[in-house]
Amino acid sequence: MALKITVIGTGYLGATHAAAMAELGFEVLGLDVVPEKIELLQRGQVPMYEPGLEELLRKHVAGIEGSSGRLRFTTDFAEVAAFGDVHFLCVNTPQKHGEYACDMSYVDSAIASLAPHLHGPALVVGKSTVPVGSADRLAGYLAAHAPAGADAELAWNPEFLREGFAVQDTLRPDRIVVGVRGERAEKLLREVYATPVAAGTPFVVTDFPTAELVKTAANSFLATKISFINAMAEVCEAAGGDVARLAEAIGYDDRIGRKFLRAGIGFGGGCLPKDIRAFMARAGELGADQALTFLREIDSINMRQRGQMVELARQALGGGPFLGKRVAVLGATFKPDSDDVRDSPALNVAGQIHLQGAQVTVYDPKGMANARRLFPTLGYADSAAEAVRGADVVLHLTEWREFRELDPEELGREAGVRVILDGRNALDPEIWRKAGWTYRAMGRPTA
Ligand code: UDX
Fold first, then answer.
1. Fewer Cβ in 10 A, N or C end of the chain?
2. Distance 267 CA to ligand 1 centre (A)
3. Of the residues 162, 347, 400, 422, which should be mutated to test ligand 1's pocket, given the most ligand atoms within 8 Å of the CB?
4. Per CATH, the architecture of 221-441 is what?
5. Mean pLDDT of the region 265-285
6. Over 80: is that where the pLDDT of 13 sits?
7. Edge-to-edge strands, sheet with 438-441
8. How many CB atoms lie within 10 A of CB 308?
């Protein structure tokens, strides 16, 4: 009989995983402790913007006309325990308030709510990003608190999905990593992932700590790549070089590669910043803090980019105070194709300039509602043209396609002064200059 799957936590990760499991042919029950989220999902609506996710949900959510009916939702842990053979844990692990360490309370409370209902054999599979050592601790907790005892097993299966590509990354991941302690867990997970594995996705079996570390190591590497190129941008600023050409040139070396070498205002979001900090905190607890002190530098290079963007804007306005100046900001989300503004460099820059007295107007294709909630005192506009109206300088801070497709001539008629600062090195300087704009990008003082 086909495996029955549950997904606990229906945020970016969980909602996507649940829909993907239904797409792979399994019966799926999703759980969240927030009833409003469950009500939305039951109607086939997604609580966030993620390309393709709503379509995939509507294809499978029971009760929606024409759907497979394989995907249902609940808020009841007893129902989840009775339903599933494999339980995926997809709750978030944010940064703790005032500390580097990550907050494990959602993971712990999900396990605590599930365990007492596990009366028969079950596999609980953690997907959340956790400090190394958590799987070992949680396996012990499960064995002690589930009525099924040792038959309630744990595995760790980190998730690598990128926001904006969540559906694609979940259905066709570039690798599947499973940390297991026994053959039964591995066999069950091979069954769950049979379709992508048959299509060629590598399946890497490890122990618990390695599986947990793969995720934090991958994100640390990505963060390091971005901060490396941003450090080169700083040197290019000082030396009169061009970081975009530099990235292109070193990227031809396939040991280095072109990806994740776009200099600009740096990384943000709900993962990279908090993951490298939690990794440092955990290494400290393990007595291995020296191994990761470089991540402190990666973090500070990254945070410095935001300040440098503010300085570029100040210079563009003549070098004096921001007071009374009008600044247009294109982009609020931490990356394009997402409505996520968590630790967004764009919003951070907008906020800093606003707090220094400028009149800042922000426009973002999908992030307006979240941005408003987080930073209600900024000005918001319904379009790029409206944001730019009468502005003394325009800041391009999130590389949405919509902004690359703007007509600089048309936009120029709205702007007070034709000066654009590209905080993402994503616009074509030629096109903007042709329309009479002064174009300036980070790490390319002369480009
Ligand atoms: C990341 C990892 O990529 C993913 O594998 C993991 O599961 C979760 O964390 P995500 O947070 O969606 O995914 O964003 P990502 O695409 O990695 O971008 C992170 C940040 O880096 C964004 O703010 C982006 O704008 C920035 N970035 C990316 C750069 O500044 N330069 C680059 O060259 C690439």
1. N
2. 6
3. 162
4. 3-Layer(aba) Sandwich (3.40)
5. 97
6. yes
7. 379-380, 359-363, 326-330, 393-396, 419-422, 438-441
8. 19
